[in-house]
Amino acid sequence: MNRLAFPLVAILTLWGQFVSAAEVPNVVMIISDDQAWGDYSFMGHPHIQTPHLDRLARESLTFTRGYVPDSLCRPSLTTIVTGRYPHEHGIVGNDPPPPPKLEDMPKGAVFRDPRYLAIRNKYIEHIDDEATLADLLTEHGGYLSHQSGKWWEGHFSRGGFTHGMTHGDRTKGGRHGDDGLTIGRQGMKPVFDFMDMAQQEQKPFFVYYAPFLPHTPHNPPERLLEKYKGKTPHLPVAKYWAMCEWFDETCGELLGYLDDHKLAENTIVLYVTDNGWINDTQASRYAPKSKRSQYDGGTRTPIMVRWTGHIKPKMDTEHLASSIDLVPTVLAEIGAKVPENLPGINLADAAAVANRKAIFGEILEHDIQDMNNPVASLRFRWVIDGNWKLIVPHPGREPKAPLELYDLAADPHEEQNLATDQPDRVAKLRKELDAWWPVN
């Protein structure tokens, strides 16, 4: 090669790499905290207004029949970022078991005890064994990544994030997000600053936005509370509805940033809720058949994927989606290798979505029963095949609970148990469930 040609080839090669890097899409993941699947305008709620999420739903491949495997935040959030079921990643509850000598102490005192602190820190090590979405994006495309909001697994870097808000120090109030829990409630500046920095460095970015919204405390801005007070006789319900709109406003700020900075078309936006919530009429607490339950009120959520010009918008009211699908969807769409141990599918692959037979889940105790044995915390396993849902109690934690079968098309709120009337269907679904996760 002559001396003039070599620099030209080098310049063209570098230019090709630059163009390729510029075309790598950013990724923004929005995670609602404690919100029922129907509590959005686009899902038909008669009072709650969510104009920004309504727009996102119109512009996305939106699955109205989305689910998370567990109706509790910590296991659910870990599934969202790893693409693996709780019994696979091992994070099956919010807090690990205290040592026997501390069992009868008040919970606040237990949390401060150095003997329990060692156990809490030990349990965080489960995340160290997982490849998170942040890890995989960094490995594939050199992404910068930012954590804000709800995060249980110690310092943000343990989740593979290059930047973040949560320090995770259990001796300084670190439990489920600490400093990160201010995002949304106290503005969006940390996220915006991160995206500014990533653009200056010409790096693709991943934003994990999991605000403590509409989660309790239900203390919405007064202007929003006044808007809903006249729509329900129950003040706690009005507060929760106002929180849902407050959360929507913060989503509008985030999506507006992408629009204003001409990033929307080159950004994959994902939406999911960590678990459901039905507000008690008398207090700001969850009612039965919602959070922590085996019912759709705790596990169902809209799931959205938006990538303008690449993924065709569609409101899918028929097919099933799961939070286990989010990681493989992103990886497949950016051309990265999808790890073989991920059970989910690419939601943008219409054939894969149509061919899926069933989705599965597991309901576990709030407090972890064993540091390394997920079955010790298991309460229920569930399967949905088409419109039929089977719930199987685990005798170790739920010895008196009945087997439950529901036709979700005819009975979306799971009020008529058909298990006794349809033993053949129960047997068929039970076989699918046992093939997914056989539990003795």
Description:
The protein has 15 helices and 13 strands. The N and C termini lie far apart (69 Å). Strands 1, 2, 3, 4, 5, 6, 7, 8 and 9 form a nine-stranded mixed beta sheet that branches. A four-stranded antiparallel beta sheet has the order 10-11-12-13, covered by helices on one side. The protein has a single domain, classed as Alkaline Phosphatase, subunit A. 34% of the residues lie in helices and 16% in strands. The radius of gyration is 22 Å and the shape is globular.
List keywords for this structure.
440 residues; alpha/beta; Alkaline Phosphatase, subunit A; nine-stranded mixed beta sheet; globular
Task: Tell me the radius of gyration.
Answer: 22 Å
Helix-strand topology string = HEHEHHHHHHEEHEHHEHEEEHHEEEEH
Strand fraction equals: 15-25%
Number of helices: 15
What is the helix fraction of residues, given as a range? 25-40%
Give start-end ranges of low-pLDDT stretches. Answer: 1-21
